[in-house]
Structure formats: C-alpha cells, structure tokens
Request: fold
Amino acid sequence: MLCKHCKNEVTKEMDVCPHCHQPLDESLFEANQTQVLSEQPNLSSKTLLFGSIGVFLSFLFFFGIPFVHFIGIVLGRQGILYAKEDKSLSRPYSRNGQLLSWIAVGLGVFGIVFNIVYVILNPEVVNG
Ligand SMILES: [Zn+2]
Reply:
C-alpha cells in the first residue's frame, strides 16, 4: 500500500513511514479490505447483467435480427471474466451470471455456425 502522507510504498508491518516519518494509520488497511469485500456483490450483479443481456441478444439473432449475436458473445465473454474476478463464487448471483454468460457465448457461436451452414445450404441467399 501507499503512505497517505507522501504516497511512497510502505508495508503493513511498518508503524512509521521510512520516507516521511509520519505514523501509519492502521484504519487504512481496514478501509482497503472493506472496499474489496463491498466490490464483490457488484461483480456478481455485473456478471448477471452481462450474462442476461448477452443471452437476450444472442437469442434475438434467431428471430432474424442480424449481428446482435456478436454483441451477445462479447457481453457473455465479459460476464465470464467478471465471474472469474469474483472470488466468492458461492454467491448464487455469480453462478447464475456465469451460466448465463456461457449460454450467451454458446448461443452466439451457434448463431455464427448456423449462419454459415445456412449460407452454404442456400447459396442463392448470397448470390441474390
Ligand atoms: Zn510517508
């Protein structure tokens, strides 16, 4: 962490900053820890949000709206990254969000494959 007086690097074991000789406040460490913990539920809801919007967009592709499944894949991938960042995977939000994110990516990739196969089977779609 950084000394709040001179912004130099200090460790938790130090009572006094070696750079500016100011006493180091113990409550700073506690504040940092609370901040990390309070960010976790935020990550869980982000995972859930990105996953569910991703699934929705990937799903919309199958109703004839072009290109939305690409956004679905991107959002789903982001949801998976958020779920990985979240250290408390026992939270139901993260698990549901992670599952939704994988479904979003899966549906989106399936959409791309589906599109390619459709064009191969129906070349007249491309040729007009
Ligand atoms: Zn200092």
Notes: DSSP finds four helices and no strands in the chain. The longest helix spans residues 27-61. Helices lie at 27-61, 68-85, 92-121, 124-127. The pocket of zinc ion is lined by residues 3, 5-6, 8, 17, 19-20, 22 (CB under 6 Å).
